[in-house]
């Protein structure tokens, strides 16, 4: 009897292509080597202009961006990538750890933000989590690809939110958090659950990350973000979606 064709984890990962945009050569060389060792196909470019050129002509599963680069910085590149490919996972790497820089990165469309110096294993874990979320999100689209929330109609395929002539676009992560809550309407969802199932990270770290994303969603969809009706807080536990 013929043995079944069983792919190893490493062989399966070769399908995932990563665009690495980093102008610090020594760091980029090390990252490229370790990402390839972990089973990924990597395309490395050294500036924002080249990154956009390559992104337009090739297919990728995830993008890693430095912030301080020639021609276009990482924030600008993230914005342009998000316009072309709303669901593309984008991870920003930077030495800038100010809160305002984190907020700017998320506003530009980044899904995750890792400050230098960082541990290689943490980077690899975040990449694996982002790619798993991408697959989960594709599966989730089969149920309710378009919903109405308040005065907005939300299309989870292109991440657009429309109300009359008004429209804006969610980031991939914002859309996943929102969809997770909406699908569990009337059920309390803890921060721990969101971190483990949407972020795919240890629930003991970065719990404030969840709160920041909830605050952003409330700003978009609540009439009065300080007195939310749709996304309610459950003190010391988490959040609950309650469509009125």
Condensed summary:
With 244 residues, the chain is an alpha/beta fold. It has helices spanning 9-13, 25-37, 48-57, 74-84, 99-108, 120-140, 172-182, 191-199, 207-221, and strands at residues 17-21, 41-45, 62-66, 90-94, 112-115, 146-149, 152-155, 160-163, 166-169, 189-190, 231-234, 238-241.
Word description of this protein:
By secondary structure, the chain is α/β, with parallel strands linked by helices. The protein has 2 domains: 12-139, Rossmann fold (3-Layer(aba) Sandwich), CATH 3.40.50; 143-241, Winged helix-like DNA-binding domain superfamily/Winged helix DNA-binding domain (Arc Repressor Mutant, subunit A), CATH 1.10.10.10. The chain is built from 9 helices and 12 strands. The chain has a 5-stranded parallel β-sheet with strand order 2-1-3-4-5, with helices on both faces. It has a 4-stranded antiparallel β-sheet with strand order 6-7-8-9, with no helix packed on it. A hairpin with a 4-residue loop joins strand 7 and strand 8 (160-163). The chain starts with 8 loop residues before the first helix and ends with a strand.
């Amino acid at each position: 009897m013929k043995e079944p064709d069983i792919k190893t984890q490493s062989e399966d990962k070769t399908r995932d292509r990563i665009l690495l945009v980093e102008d610090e050569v020594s760091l980029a060389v090390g990252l490229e080597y370790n990402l390839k060792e972990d089973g990924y196909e990597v395309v490395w470019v050294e500036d924002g202009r080249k990154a956009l050129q390559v992104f337009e002509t090739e297919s990728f599963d995830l993008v890693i961006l430095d912030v301080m680069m020639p021609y276009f910085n990482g924030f600008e590149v993230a914005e342009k990538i998000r316009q072309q490919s709303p669901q593309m996972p984008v991870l920003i790497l930077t030495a800038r750890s100010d809160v305002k820089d984190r907020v700017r990165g998320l506003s530009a469309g980044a899904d995750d933000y890792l400050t230098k110096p960082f541990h290689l294993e943490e980077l690899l874990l975040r990449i694996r989590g982002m790619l798993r979320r991408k697959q989960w999100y594709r599966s989730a689209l089969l149920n309710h690809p378009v919903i109405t929330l308040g005065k907005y109609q939300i299309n989870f395929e292109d991440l657009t939110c429309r109300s009359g002539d008004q429209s804006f676009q969610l980031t991939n992560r914002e859309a996943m958090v929102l969809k997770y809550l909406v699908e569990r309407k009337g059920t309390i969802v803890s921060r721990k659950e969101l971190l483990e199932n949407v972020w795919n990270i240890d629930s003991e770290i970065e719990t404030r990350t969840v709160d920041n994303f909830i605050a952003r969603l409330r700003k978009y969809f609540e009439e009065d973000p300080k007195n939310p009706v749709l996304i309610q807080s459950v003190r010391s536990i988490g959040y609950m979606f309650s469509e009125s």
